[in-house]
Amino acid sequence: MQSFMFNMVLSELEDACGRDNVSISTADKLSYGVDYFWIGRKWADAGRPLPTADFIVRPGSPEAVSKVLKIANYYKIPVQTWGGGSGSQGAALPMAGGILLDTKRMNKLIAVDEMSRTITAETGMIFQTLEWYAGERGYSIQHIPSCLTCGTVGGALAHRGIGIMSTKYGKIDDQCLSLEVVLPNGDIINTLPVPKHAAGPDLMQMFIGSEGTLGVITKATFKLFELPETRKFYSFLFKTFGDGILAGRDILQKMKPSILRLYDEAETVSIIKKIVGVEKHGSFMNLALEGNAEIVAIEEKMLREIIARYDAFDTGEEYGEKWYKNRVTFFYPGHIMDIPQMFGTMDTVATYDRVEPIYYAMKHAIEDNFEGVRFIAHCSHWYEWGTMIYDRFIMDHPPEDPDEAVRLHNEIWNAGVRAALENGGVINDHHGVGLKLSRLMKEQYGPAMQVFEALKKGLDPNGIMNPYKLGL
Amino acid sequence: MSYENSVMFTDRAYTIAEACRFCWMCRHCCPVGLRTGREINTPRAKGLIVSLLKRGTAYDRDIARAMYECTLCGACSNDCVTGYEPPVYIREARTQALVDELVPPEVMAVIEHVAETGNIYGEEKPCYVGTSSEADVLVYIGDTAACRTPDLIRSFFSVLSKLDVPFRTLSDEPTSGADLYDLIGDVDEVRTACKKLAERIRKTGVRTVVCLNPNDAAMLARRYEDFSIPLPAKVRTATSFVADLLKESSVSVTPQPLRVTYHDNVRLSRELGETDPARDILAVLGVELHEMFLHGKLAHDCGSAVFHAYAPDLCALTAAGRWEEAARTPARTLVTASPEDYLVLSAQTPEGYEVKDLFAIVDEALA
What we know:
The structure holds two protein chains of two kinds.
Chain A: H1 5-17, E1 22-23, H2 26-31, H3 38-45, E2 55-57, H4 62-75, E3 79-82, E4 99-102, E5 109-113, E6 118-122, H5 127-136, E7 139-140, H6 153-158, H7 166-169, H8 172-175, E8 176-182, E9 188-190, H9 203-207, E10 216-223, E11 225-226, E12 230-238, H10 241-254, E13 259-263, H11 265-275, E14 283-291, H12 293-309, E15 313-314, H13 317-325, E16 342-345, E17 348-351, H14 352-367, E18 373-379, E19 386-395, H15 402-422, H16 441-445, H17 449-459
Chain B: E1 2-4, E2 7-9, H1 11-20, H2 31-36, H3 43-54, H4 61-68, H5 75-79, H6 86-99, H7 105-117, E3 137-140, H8 143-148, H9 150-162, H10 178-184, H11 188-204, E4 208-211, H12 214-226, E5 234-237, H13 238-248, E6 259-262, H14 266-271, H15 276-285, E7 288-289, H16 305-310, H17 312-327, E8 333-336, H18 339-346, E9 354-357, H19 358-366
Parallel strand pairs in B: 3-4, 4-5, 6-7, 6-8, 8-9
Antiparallel strand pairs in B: 1-2
């Protein structure tokens, strides 16, 4: 910007949000320069300049968000929305400079409707806080991801997040009932009060997963579930990963475990051994049944019949419970992968007939083509028709040079994701697309991508909302 | 010590910062982060900044100010499964800010108060006299109670008298060093203050020091040991001391018809691991206790006296946050067991609510 134009925009933003809620300080700018995306971390670790916004704004209401977007549209300044910044896909990073809009001041609980069993909040609230509000009344939203304590309500919606209880209680897009959204032109809209209807296409689902490219989600209503009367844990060891997948399919035909996780042989002898303590070889499965005690007792009987069909070894309740107690331990420093390692979670979803072919295609694409890279996987979110593969690559000794490392990182991602797509997989189950997978969206959707592009062009003709993300 | 880019942090601080810079797990606990919504007010962001200082980013006034937007309540450390303690690098960043003359002026004013008068208020500290100059129990009153909440001292002294406990105090009571340690970290001035108080206690020959302020208790019980400053007396918190006395005493207690919630002081609960004695006292008093959803070691901090002194607006936010949590219980009375919490929460009391000091209730019950 020329001369004092910067100050003119700054004044307008301060007028919209309050002077205390607009910042151009170094400390603020740096704090938004890294999210959970590996490349951002590598850049920070190497002391390279981080992506920074010119203005940090922290609006306290949808009206203030509206004002910010109107200002941004007038000056054609990019706007990147940031919640907790815990996303792994680089979706929140201010890659285009301009405005970074932090939603965390919009953190109020709006309503708990015990009659309808719903809860409504502003989207800058940390999801754990919302879950605490529900818990105070004896309910749960049952969105319990590993990022529960660090992601915001809006963040979970923006990338179509999922929690460990998803197999019974659904993904965030199943749990959400309605949204308030500020469109790029500043208009504040609401989706319909309920998600099931025959009033045209699903407006709400157009915004869930839009990653800040179509507007800013400012309010959301979710289902509330009564806390389960009982929760029982189980764990089993299958001879092969394939046996476990088939058993999972059979289980989903009879019941809905809240937790159902199946680890491949490589992950069983590494992460599961380290955190849960299982020493045996095979494919480890842990699950939980919960709800009414009598129903759970019947489900347990049916579960054991299915497990017996696959000749799996019962490793006992203890390991299932131990996994649950340690479910977030995996993500703390010293337990999770970190720089200098290179790593990524490819997170593919597919129908049951494609799961094993995709798993092996990705494993070969990565391990056969990239020396020193290992591939591990588990299936942690199950549907009646298929499951997701939480497939990860890990390289212990990547190139030290950041430019070389980033090139290799992207080559590995291209190889893995393309192997999944070629075998009928979908690019991502619940981490989102962001900057990381943006380039691959057209390969995923083909000509169908024009639908998203038209939506983007219609709602955001100036292209200010989160540039370079989601392939838009 | 490590010396790089003229920034000086201990290896321990760097190790913790390097672990925290890419870890998001504890932000939900941070009272300042939750109330301000600023990303920099998360342990992750502060860790990231410290790691960037090591990599050549210049330490400036913006960064220094951010390092003071923290109550050092230890919620992040308490949450960390791995055992990392973000306050270590935040304190050291404050030390570095002092060395580099980057301390924000409002903080510097409080530091200067300590230099001039020994306490953060910049006032002459009033003296309070115990019941016996030969007593084996010394009550360490602390700066905040002496300068800001004298009623709490009177209540506590009255309780001890009613429970037949002779006690003494220190004339010209020296500071514990707790506030200065939070302001500028582990520097010579802090250790000098600690040694001065330790020497005064040693000279009394008492076997028990009862700290009215949990912040002082944590300093004496934990930091003095870290600093290799011997204390010849056993350090007790006022709450644990009185709880034990009430258990052993045959004095009659009049049940108090109060419906209360109790705010756990964070130094008491997290640093000293003490959560039961205050509740034991409340049980003896027969009050109806309604716990806040986050209590014990998980309690959100309301802000400290020193935070209140240099960042009153931020402290008002953290205190208001705790009041919101209290207001979600059926109680209209919030009980504190710390002069600092009493001071901070009283300043933000919503209409229709009251703050009561635990020992004031005990005093009434023993009357």
